[in-house]
Design goal:
Strand order of the largest sheet: 4-5-6-9-8-7
CATH topology of the largest domain: Chorismate lyase
Number of helices: 8
Low-confidence stretches: none
Structural class: alpha+beta
Strand content: 25-35%
CATH architecture of the largest domain: 3-Layer(aba) Sandwich
Distance between the termini: 54 Å
CATH class of the largest domain: Alpha Beta
Bound molecules: 2-acetamido-2-deoxy-6-O-phosphono-alpha-D-glucopyranose
Helix content: 25-40%
Order of helices and strands: HHHEEEHEHEEHHEHEEE
Number of strands: 10
Mean pLDDT: 89
Oligomer: single chain
């Protein structure tokens, strides 16, 4: 119930009521919550107050507005652990989500300067360029462009990209992925990523570029991943480093 004589602002009380309804399981992930009008009537409060409460919860990622459809309990963010090198397929399985992949394109191209550098190829050498949309429980969460040297994987085909590429590299090619190096930055969705991820062009995204290595410091893949900003959250466990080991930004 909303207490109008309480020093706690009414919008805040409404936020707490909504959160409680979600925590208690009354409103489940992905379900619509009552309309603003229903809140106004039920608690005899103004539409502006309800709107403020809902906007705050949308900003916190607890609720989601869908144009023309209403407000829904957010599906929640995928929480990714940054400490180990895992594949998308493994990450989703660990989270109890079902991974799915749509291969947008699969081609053999000549290595560009940057990809050649990342993969240790001679500029112009043949490499695969694979574009994929990655889904979690049917929701698109990531859009990836992966480059792999053709020389290392002469038999790689589109069908392998429909499953786990790490699985292909490790099991079929027998090259264990031992470590990686990745860069993370905040960015805005470009046209193609926006289409694949079902978000607006310019919406906030998280961009990660990873190069993975096998034995002998051999680079096996270079992947640029664009994650939906509202669906991804990174967790990192940090170890205190002794002074002198800090690498300044380049
Ligand atoms: C992850 C990796 C990506 C890798 C992919 C393989 C990050 C930031 N990126 O998305 O580099 O290519 O997994 O996934 O985690 P797969 O084995 O399921 O195809």
């Amino acid at each position: 119930m909303v207490k109008k004589d309480s020093p706690v602002p009414i919008y805040f009380q409404v936020e707490e009521i909504i959160k409680e309804s979600i925590d208690s399981g009354k409103w489940k992930k992905g379900e619509a919550i009552p309309s603003e009008r229903q809140f106004c009537e039920q608690y005899s409060i103004s539409r502006m107050t309800v709107r403020q409460a809902i906007t705050n919860l949308v900003n916190e990622g607890i609720l989601e507005r869908k144009r023309g459809k209403g407000t829904f309990v957010s599906a929640g963010k995928v929480l990714q652990d940054l400490t180990g090198i895992t594949s998308f397929t493994e990450q989703m399985k660990e989270l109890g989500k079902s991974p799915e992949t749509k291969v947008q394109s699969f081609e053999e191209i000549s290595a560009s300067k940057q990809a050649a550098k990342e993969l240790g190829l001679i500029q112009g050498e043949a490499m695969y360029k694979i574009k994929r949309t990655r889904l979690a429980d049917g929701d698109p969460v990531a859009y990836e462009t992966t480059y792999l040297p053709c020389r290392l994987f002469p038999d790689l085909a589109k069908i392998h990209a429909e499953g786990s590429i790490y699985d292909y590299i490790e099991r079929q090619s027998g090259m264990p992925i031992l470590y990686g190096r990745q860069e993370i930055e905040a960015s805005e969705a470009g046209k193609k990523a926006a289409e694949a991820l079902k978000i607006h062009e310019g919406a906030p995204v998280l961009k990660i570029q990873r190069t993975s290595y096998t034995e002998g410091d051999l680079a096996v893949e270079y992947t640029k991943t664009v994650y939906r900003g509202d669906r991804y959250k990174y967790v990192m466990e940090l170890e205190r480093k002794t002074s002198g080991s800090f690498q300044p930004f380049t």
